[in-house]
Amino acid sequence: LLTENTIRSDWKDNPIVGEFSLSIFLYVSEEKNHFNFYTFSGLKEALNIENNEFLAQALNYLCSPKSQVLSQIFFYIDDQDNEYQFDNEEINHYIQDGFFASPHTGQQLNSEDIYIAYQLGRCFKEDASND
Amino acid sequence: MTKTTLDQIEKFSGNSEVFRRSLARCKAYEDKNYLAFIDILYKDLDFILYQFQANPQLHKSSEEDKISHIIEMFLNTQGYTASHNKQSGGNVDLTVLLGQVLDGFTWIGEAKIYRSIADPREGLLQLVSRYKPASGNYNHVHQGVLLYVYRPEIITLMQDWRDELPSQQPIHSNIQNDIFNNPFAFTSEYTHESGVTCKVRHIGLNLYFKPRDKSGRNRKVKP
What we know:
Strand content of chain A: 5-15%
Oligomer: heterodimer
Radius of gyration of chain A: 16 Å
Helix content of chain B: 25-40%
Largest sheet of chain A: 3 strands, antiparallel
Number of strands of chain A: 3
Strand order of the largest sheet of chain A: 2-1-3
Structural class of chain B: alpha/beta
Strand content of chain B: 25-35%
Number of strands of chain B: 8
Largest interface: A-B, 42 and 37 residues
Distance between the termini of chain B: 45 Å
Number of helices of chain B: 7
Strand order of the largest sheet of chain B: 2-3-4-5-8-7-6
Shape of chain A: elongated
């Protein structure tokens, strides 16, 4: 799937994002760094990345169908501290309409109340199934 | 560890729409939905074409290859695999793949500088007569003609081309206004020699730039 050359070639015009993409790719490729999920701030800290915008671009790229290195998960924590992870249908709804709805009331949730995290993508799952 | 909100990610990505487009690409691929792929690809194409149109002074003398290359580079950073001048039954200007070769979706387009009506005619002829889907899958029936226009009145030029289409071979029918509301785009259909009905989006890119004020006339733009 994704290679170092592809990353560098894709980001020829913006090598900083390319370097961030490559650093994340190499970091999550190491088995000792395989976790259930990763946070934006955790990756930022682990890889010593300062620029949020470039990091977001790199993560969006690494989640893409071309890379499949990571995938996003979205969740909501209610007033009782219950965590609720949104499913595919709810993500489709967000893509179409721009917001998530409360799993309890169906009402529109503010994007400040939705959290995002990342998990290993299909390329690692396929690697594992080929072992 | 600090949790990052959707609001923050949307802002870091540019805005909500940019972030949602990145998710839409993933969903189109995961759901194996070819029409969703076409929908998001055309939104992405319009996004980059609008960037050109916002800064036509930067592309005053660009050749079609250079513009196609910038489009290709942009698409590659958005998670497509795009290439230009790749063989697919002939010389196709832009080939786009979403996903992996064996199970992804493809789209092909032909790009021309619109100097006269002969240019879109030639572009369409190349697309149609040499067409075979880059994936080999004849369900992938959407194609595009990109017309780079350095002349004034692109609306009239696109209308001229639209008026010509019914007399082209193969005959183009079902000519429709653009569903993405790009004022310089429209769609048509034709029957490929395989019998498959192909759908073409004709997209004009307005690169005309001729400031009339004194400072505009004297300004030299760095390439």
